[in-house]
Amino acid sequence: MEEAKSQQYVLLAKGAKGRAVAECIMKATAEPGLFGFRELMALPSVQELQSGDLAPYYKLLQMFAYGVWGDYKSSASSLPELNEQQCIKLKQLTLVSLALKIKVISYQMLQQQLEIPTVRQLEDFIITECFYTSIIAGKLDQKKACLQIHNSIGRDVRPEQLPELEAGLQNWVQAAEGVLESIENRIQYSAQAAEQYRQEREQVEAKAGAVKATLKAEPQEMVSRGDMQLDEGSFDLMDEDRMAGPSIIGERGDRTAGRPKRRLR
Question: pTM of the predicted model, to two decimals?
């Protein structure tokens, strides 16, 4: 949506000259939902306004691209007067600038930077003009009288700020690469630990299987040994019967033979 609005004003200013470009700047800076002005500022027709009677309009566009409400107030006498929608827009951008630097902003600081006299008006502005328009996301802490910033939109960057921005991005890339390397090392360590655990588990399972097989074979061996002992015992008893037979039965086949005779008186 914002890109479409920006392109609309870029096309209008691209084919315009002088006062028409100035009017385009006033409309663009008042347009709800349009917070980026880099492409509009880069147009030759807009660059031509830097000198001459219409230079204040170019400075005003710069104010909306890079500045804050306090900057405008200090230079208001040399700049075009703002309408109500432009005032709201510049205060929105001021809050965005603060949100990009500070994550917990006190009500006192906000009231000073935005020139909003009461806490009730400040909270209404934040909720209606910032939360509902999604230029910032955060939480109002009435107990601590502060605004907690979760995230916000970006703003245009001055050309002289580009080297600093590039350095910041390079630092971020290096930090991200360090985090990525740490994650990869942890993944590799986890994979090695998992493989070692698998091997140890297989060894334990193999040993457990061998123990189970041994325990299962031992009762059968004990039964076999018991049967063998029983057979040997039976054989011994039969041998004893054969050896004791003649003494019990006697030579005549009389079963009473071999008994001691009674003496007659």
Answer: 0.66
